[in-house]
Design brief:
38% of the residues lie in helices and 14% in strands. The chain is of the alpha/beta class and 468 residues long. The chain has 3 domains: 64 residues, Arc Repressor Mutant, subunit A (Orthogonal Bundle); 107 residues, Aspartate Aminotransferase, domain 1, CATH 3.90.1150; 237 residues, Type I PLP-dependent aspartate aminotransferase-like (Major domain) (Aspartate Aminotransferase, domain 2). The strands form 4 sheets. Strands 4-11-10-9-8-5-6-7 form an 8-stranded mixed β-sheet, with helices on both faces. Strands 12-13-16-15 form a 4-stranded antiparallel β-sheet, with helices on one face. A two-stranded antiparallel sheet has the order 1-2. The longest helix has 27 residues. It is globular and about 85 Å long. It binds pyridoxal-5'-phosphate. The site of pyridoxal-5'-phosphate has 13 residues, from helix 7.
Length: 468
């Protein structure tokens, strides 16, 4: 079904106007084979024209093979493949070089793999459906008739502040907490308010590619700074960096924890050079061994650290909820930018999440998820240690939902992920995390979407491909 229009100023006969609209819609794929055309009687009544005018247009489409009459079902678009029209990109719609340079981080969802080791995927069976549904239903009792606070609802901000204080020792108040659509969105907002196009910002190399894409899309100069076993190498940060983005609790993708000494060194450097720091604490709720270190945000004495958290690992990446905790001085600009772009986070999701946290469902869910993911983590770790071929090494990681394997150093070899994919293994190449340096070989193996009983077979499949 498709809305048809007639232009009273168009000198062409009405039947020709109808014919042209339908033919173009079929040729451009807006009407697809098997779609039913609106009955001619209805079109005639809607447009207040004679039915014969509509049947004339339909007759021409039928004679040219675009549609076929089916008794009792009206006219259907034919299955005859239409030649794909070459589309010339109108200059007005040519994306800018900046936008065109962004490579999508995640491919479009493809066919399911036998072993889903994609970092970022969670076990859908662990999502607490019944509890979440209850929280959503309770929320629907509240009014949803207006725009809401760009910073997030006061109820959710209070719940988040209390929770991060309790779970990660972040010194947060509801006033300082700002709800976002995930961690990457938080980085986007902070960069928008702190760095003008052309300014230099620093990220870890290797690092999290979506953040590099966000910063570049804003016209910022992104500098990649190497990491060692203690975290970002502070002396390699460009002196003019306005903002430094780091993942201290669990470096993405290599997995090390930034040492306390390095944290203090980074803060001292930022103090001297007048830079702000974004601390992305994306997955430290899943800590499998060592005690957490004090967040940068807590060590910061002069208010230059913005702490970022997300529910993409703790609950679901599909919820699109994250948050930041910021010195209050940044709030007016953040609120103004958020309101200008999309006004506010969705109140219904916020209401459900507030209930979910305050009623204790989140703690309960996390206890269960930590247990399950912890079992998979330990099994994956030991299986990799036993089965990886020579030249491959599992990197130490004590938090999070993926393990990283480094490959042979000298490899200029082709990327193995498509080959692994053909063998039923879906994972992410370590190369993708390098935006500046020649990439090291290796892979990120997510275990949250991989059922426990699949862990060992997946590692067998991996090592047999790597051995071949
Ligand atoms: C380093 C890092 N930051 C943030 C995120 C989560 O991003 P978001 O909250 O935008 O889904 C991920 C997800 O894998 C990540 O690896």
């Amino acid at each position: 079904m498709m809305e048809l229009f007639l232009d009273p100023d168009d000198p062409r006969p009405l039947a020709v106007q109808l014919y042209e609209q339908l033919r173009t819609a079929i040729a451009e794929g807006r009407l697809r084979p098997g779609d039913r055309l609106t009955p001619s009687r209805t079109v005639a009544a809607d447009l207040r024209i004679a039915r014969a005018t509509v049947t004339e247009a339909y007759g021409r489409l039928s004679a040219e093979g675009y549609i076929e009459g089916h008794s009792g079902r009206g006219s259907l678009v034919s299955a005859v493949p239409q030649p794909a029209r070459r589309r010339t990109v109108v200059a007005a719609l040519q994306p800018t070089r900046r936008a065109g340079a962004i490579v999508p981080f995640a491919p479009r969802p493809g066919a399911a793999s036998e072993f889903d080791c994609q970092p970022g995927h969670l076990d859908p069976a662990l999502f607490p459906v019944a509890d979440w549904r209850r929280c959503c239903l309770r929320t629907l009792d509240h009014a949803l008739g207006q725009y809401d606070d760009p910073q997030g609802t006061p109820g959710l901000r209070a719940a988040l502040a209390n929770w991060v204080l309790r779970s990660r020792g972040v010194a947060a108040t509801a006033e300082q907490t700002f709800v976002t659509s995930g961690a990457a969105h938080a980085v986007d907002l902070v960069a928008r308010v702190l760095a003008d196009p052309g300014a230099t910002v620093a990220v870890e190399e290797p690092g999290y590619p979506p953040v590099v894409a966000i910063l570049r899309s804003q016209g910022l100069r992104v500098a990649g700074v190497p990491v060692d076993e203690h975290g970002i190498v502070v002396e390699a940060i460009p002196a003019n960096a306005r903002l430094v983005y780091v993942t201290p609790s669990h470096q993405y993708p290599l997995g090390m924890v930034m040492s306390r000494r390095r944290r203090l060194e980074l803060l001292r450097w930022a103090g001297r050079s007048g830079a702000a720091i974004v601390e992305d604490d994306y997955d430290s709720e899943f800590r499998h061994a060592a005690r957490p270190l004090e967040p940068l945000q807590r060590l910061d004495r002069d208010g230059r650290v913005i702490y970022v958290g997300t529910f993409s690992k703790t609950l679901s990446p599909a919820l699109r909820v994250g948050f930041l905790v910021t010195p209050v001085t940044l709030l007016p600009a953040l609120r103004a930018v958020r309101q200008a772009v999309d006004w506010c986070p969705p109140p219904a999701t916020q209401g459900a999440l507030t209930e979910f946290i305050t009623e204790g469902y989140l703690d309960r869910h996390l206890r269960r998820a930590r247990r399950r993911y912890g079992e998979r983590y330990r099994l994956l770790r030991s299986s990799l240690d036993q089965l990886l071929p020579a030249g491959y090494r599992r990197l130490p990681a004590e938090a999070g939902l993926h393990l990283t394997v480094s490959g042979p150093r000298d490899a200029a070899d082709p990327d193995l992920t498509p080959i692994l994919r053909r063998h039923g293994l879906r994972l992410t190449s370590l190369r993708r995390s390098y935006a500046f340096e020649p990439a090291a070989t290796g892979m990120l193996i997510g275990f949250a979407g991989l059922p426990y009983q699949h862990v060992v077979p997946a590692v067998h499949a991996l090592s047999s491909v790597l051995n071949s």
